[in-house]
Amino acid sequence: MAGTMDCSFIRTLINRYCAGEENWVDSRTIYVGHKEPPPGAEAYIPQKYPDNRIVSSKYTFWNFIPKNLFEQFRRIANFYFLIIFLVQLIIDTPTSPVTSGLPLFFVIAVTAVKQGYEDWLRHKADNAMNQYPVQFIQHGKLVRKQSRNLRVGDIVMVNDGETFPCDLIFLSSSREDGTCYVTTASLDGESSHKTYYAVQDTKGFQTEEDIDSLHATVECEQPQPDLYKFVGRIHVYQERNDPIVRSLGSENLLLRGASLKNTEKIFGVAIYTGMETKMALNYQSKSQKRSVVEKSMNVFLVVYLCILISKALINTVLKYVWQSEPFRDEPWFNQKTEAERQRNLFLKAFTDFLAFMVLFNYIIPVSMYVTVEMQKFLGSYFITWDEDMFDEETGEGPVVNTSDLNEELGQVEYIFTDKTGTLTENNMEFIECCIEGNVYVPHVICNGQILPDSGGIDMIDSSPGVSGKEREELFFRALCLCHTVQVKDDVLVDGAKKSPDSSRSCIYISSSPDEVALVEGIQRLGFTYLRLKDSYMELLNRDNDIERYELLETLTFDSVRRRMSVIVKSASGDIYLFCKGADSSIFPRVTEGKVDQIRSRVERNAVEGLRTLCVAYKKLTQEEYNEVCELLHEAKVALQEREKKLAEAYELVETDLTLLGATAVEDRLQDKAADTIEALQKAGIKVWVLTGDKMETAAATCYACKLFRRNTQLLELTTKKIEEQSLHDVLFELSKTVLRCSGSMTRDSFSGLSTDMQDFGLIIDGAALSLIMKPRQPGSSGNYRELFLEICRNCSAVLCCRMAPLQKAQIVKLIKLSKEHPITLAIGDGANDVSMILEAHVGIGVVGKEGRQAARNSDYAIPKFKHLKKMILVHGHFYYIRISELVQYFFYKNVCFIFPQFLYQFFCGFSQQPLYDTAYLTLYNISFTSLPILMYSLMEQHVSSDMLKRDPSLYRDIAKNALLRWRVFIYWTFLGVFDALVFFFGAYLMLENTAMTINGHVFGNWTFGTMVFTVLVFTVTLKLALDTHYWTWINHFVIWGSLIFYIVFSLLWGGIIWPFLNYQRMYFVFIQMLSSGPAWLGIVLLIIVSLLPDILKKVLCRQLWPTATERTQNSPRQCQDHISEFIPLTSLPSPSYRSNELTSSPPASRSHSHSKKVMLTYWKSHDYSVLPLGFNFSNNYCKSSARHCYHGSGLETPE
């Protein structure tokens, strides 16, 4: 025995350290309670794991200054100004180092204080978390210690309401069935109670002594951040018996940060601690997204850097050309020393070049970055504060997760949206079920509430015969058993129920609204699901008898299989496999049943926009079940590729099924979803719907929400089409169809709003997309993609159905990286939308019923899809207008500032003499001109928000980065050069050979520079005032206040002898200049002349070539009187109008190629009509005797 153990030990060491065994890399072994495995088991090798400390802070007391400085100087602008500052310190430069150092260190200090404070708050939170008391088992007793001292392998006890201190394997609980309820709101935002299950062989250990006697080891994967994935197995050792091996999955893993609810206590073993917990691994920030404005800003910065170098180079060359004559190089009053004469010429030239770089470096605005950061940060609050985007129903408002992309909302060209929960409410209502060709319509239930005056089971078709009754009841039992629904604990459900009506008190909980709707619907058909207790599912049948089924296996749902199954054993010993799922995944596995009739009904319901599921079953013998059980057990306990092995096992089990029937559930459109899509299309934005639903259901929804219109010609690129023709032929045929009309189509028709011209809608499914994206021979794959993109460009709307989550991200990436590089936005509400939200330039999460994973991973979160309209058309428009003006204005005012300095060198012998005083150089960007542009970039509204909502086409004026194109940038640059020429030469001509004072004194060079600077400050400030359309008291205060501040500062700076200055060259200069009448006149004239070209350009362009925005500004009354189709109808005076989609869009305009049949049935002596979704009704029916009209879940009384 010892020899065997030694050989095993040596073999293990060789495999792990030499052979690189895969298990060693991908898994870890945890000894529960730190107990060594018994003799004969694998050798005990202690492993080191981190402690349970959480560290979310970036800095410590010792590394804050060096680390923070390093991070800040990694930014090119900061590093550039640091170099300039060092040059000023090292060599003799014309300006004081203070002029560069003070603004730079002001920026660095403000940023460091902000980041230091934020990190201090993180330290406080970490300390509170790490010092939290935790109870764990030691020698059969409870011991309390701080959370940070927990180690992997410790057995921890958690009480009701407490938070799990680390990631735990759930061993046992105070509940007899070995379950516990957990909320994961702090992890993924889901507030509903989730059920977790203890290990089957340890759930009986409910006391401290019992759990301390447990002898087990856990093998599991290494830490990874996926909250919903876990693979492991546990070996439970018993006396003289082989260890019992059980699989461990995410249902056994209690995550740090989650809270225990409605359970007295639980015991668990720590497997991941500290920074290895899934919560800590999810601290890592998402990849940084950069807006198109930021990219343009960096390009412009490079251009200005080139201009700066060119200026310095030109002045350096001209200096030595100027000094080529001896009397200029060494005049009699400034003789050189011997050391200066013998100095290296190239070194002198390089020093002069650096000096000119320092002199002109203010053309690169250091304060622009600070202003942009402040503008983005403060501007983001306008979204958060917007009351129009607050949803009263949910109590949710918009959330800004990043402010770096505010302006990107104004540049969106493509929107990719999920369907379920985003366009629709994800509020499922059971409509009907079809069993063996017979259609059953239950009571109408919506969210657990039964609509009034609807009772009994109503059938559209004739009742089934006696032979069909068994299948009918088997179908109902299948829906009662094949699900993951839980019954809420605080509602006691037992066998005391005497009628199905008493089951109304049942409150069902599930992560899937479809499942709750199905269980509630079947409840009205006579079968009520009661509970799951001790692995037995209980249901109440039509005869009020309780039936018990043992739950043997659950084959969980996933987005690839698109189905789920359960294996149950009845009281009589019969074993059934019940399977429900999408028709595409059920029909290929069916060998019996009325397939044609049920398929026909499924297709009909799909055309009407209903969500359909098919139900099938298979009866298993005990031998067959034993084989299935063994196959599933092998897959479940595998540590490597468990998901793949489980999928293969499921494929083998779910075969040779008998089709029972199908269900139809309705998911109503969200309020104003159609108006929102119509507005976005009118704005020139292409909207794509990416969904996992089947094609017919998704297409009906697209018609209802106006993505497809009555004149839209649908093009199909689906698996069915490709089976008839090759992919190559289908693509070329579609390409010919769309390109034939593309020559005559304009951008307006592309938006899908033209009713006179033909437009196209493309439908593609996931399988066809896989073929297009599949790597092929060199060259062919790219051709297919380009052809597909060419087709998509010429379609007004695209519907992608049967999409896996990864395929959604592939579609977004394909469009994002196409040759036009359009700006993309993805919006969704579920975990399956996270990949496309992260892939798009802008990701928006809808706070939906599928949890908050999408909202957590998004850049912005909104309560409803309708809020996207204001976020893009209003907020996005304003953000882009404001920040583009900010960027262009900063470069303009710095050209105006530095170009006179450049010109001045031609009149001072290129001696690097500064034109402006040091105080003016330092404060120009920090004080004199900073606040007006900051307030402008926060407050400006060139058009009212109401007008932007009423006329979405105004969004097109700013498309394709219109305000930061090269043409606009060059105009602003030349405007700055022109103004600088006026400042300089205007002042030069006025002061040249002219006495400006009464006593005949001639002004000196500092007066000349002060006059230029005064004209400069007034001109750039008044230029901004001319560009301001939306005046508030804040604008008035900062614009006129900045000018007054400049005057007061100049008077004080030059009017007082400051004791801390060694010399004061500006003493009395400003006062002397203002005492001259001609100086006043000159300043006024120069300001007027400087502003005149921009005023003329604006007037001429508005009159001759006005944009849509300028036309709107020119005729505000006309716009206010105009009632657009996008005005809420509730704002109209007539009381007969209602704010719903039926009013704003008559049924005639929503007709499409699908047939519109009216189904009539008879319910309890009243006539009802059921209209398909093609009419944009959602389970609408009229009850003629009561004079009431039901619209979904709402109730109206007609006048």
Main features:
1199 residues; alpha+beta; Calcium-transporting ATPase, cytoplasmic transduction domain A; Rossmann fold; eleven-stranded mixed beta sheet; nine-stranded mixed beta sheet; 43% helix; disordered N terminus; disordered C terminus; magnesium ion binding
Task: Provide structural commentary.
This protein has 1199 residues and is an alpha+beta fold. Helix content is 43%, strand content 18%. It contains 42 helices and 42 strands. Helix 4 (76-90) packs across helix 5. It is elongated, with a radius of gyration of 37 Å. The N and C termini lie far apart (92 Å). The relative contact order is 0.08.
Largest sheet: 11 strands, mixed
Please estimate the helix content: 40-55%
Distance between the termini: 92 Å
- Average pLDDT confidence is 77
Structural class: alpha+beta
- Which overall shape is indicated by the principal axes computed on the Cα atoms? elongated
Total strand segments: 42
Number of helices: 42
**Low-confidence parts lasting 5 or more residues at pLDDT below 50?**
1-25, 444-463, 491-504, 744-756, 1117-1199
Strand content: 15-25%
Radius of gyration (CA) equals 37 Å
Helix and strand layout, with pairings?
Layout: H1 2-17, H2 22-26, E1 27-31, H3 64-72, H4 76-90, H5 97-130, E2 133-138, E3 141-146, E4 155-159, E5 167-173, E6 179-183, H6 185-188, E7 194-197, H7 208-212, E8 216-221, E9 232-238, E10 241-248, E11 253-254, E12 259-261, E13 265-272, H8 278-281, H9 292-322, H10 326-329, H11 338-341, H12 345-360, H13 366-379, H14 381-384, E14 399-400, E15 414-417, E16 424-435, E17 438-441, E18 445-446, E19 449-450, E20 458-459, H15 466-481, E21 486-487, E22 508-509, H16 513-524, E23 528-533, E24 536-540, E25 546-555, E26 563-569, E27 575-581, H17 583-586, E28 590-592, H18 595-607, E29 611-620, H19 622-636, H20 642-653, E30 657-669, H21 673-682, E31 686-690, H22 695-704, E32 712-717, H23 719-724, H24 727-742, H25 747-750, E33 759-765, H26 766-773, H27 780-793, E34 797-801, H28 805-816, E35 824-828, H29 834-839, E36 842-846, H30 853-857, E37 860-862, H31 867-904, H32 918-928, H33 930-939, H34 945-950, H35 966-991, H36 1005-1027, H37 1033-1055, H38 1069-1074, H39 1077-1104, H40 1108-1114, H41 1116-1121, H42 1141-1144, E38 1159-1163, ...
Parallel strand pairs: 15-31, 15-35, 28-30, 31-34, 32-33, 33-34, 35-36, 36-37
Antiparallel strand pairs: 1-8, 2-3, 2-4, 4-13, 5-11, 5-13, 6-7, 6-12, 8-9, 9-10, 14-37, 16-17, 16-30, 17-20, 18-19, 21-22, 23-24, 24-25, 25-26, 26-27, 27-29, 29-30, 38-39, 40-41, 41-42
Helix pairs in contact: 3-5, 4-5, 4-12, 5-32, 9-12, 9-31, 13-31, 13-33, 18-22, 19-20, 21-31, 24-27, 31-33, 31-35, 31-36, 33-37, 35-36, 35-39, 36-37, 36-39
InterPro entries: ATPase_P-typ_cyto_dom_N (IPR023299), ATPase_P-typ_P_site (IPR018303), ATPase_P-typ_TM_dom_sf (IPR023298), ATPase_P-typ_transduc_dom_A_sf (IPR008250), ATPase_P-type_domA (IPR059000), HAD-like_sf (IPR036412), HAD_sf (IPR023214), P-type_ATPase_IV (IPR006539)
Enzyme class: translocase
Domain P-type ATPase N-terminal: 46-100
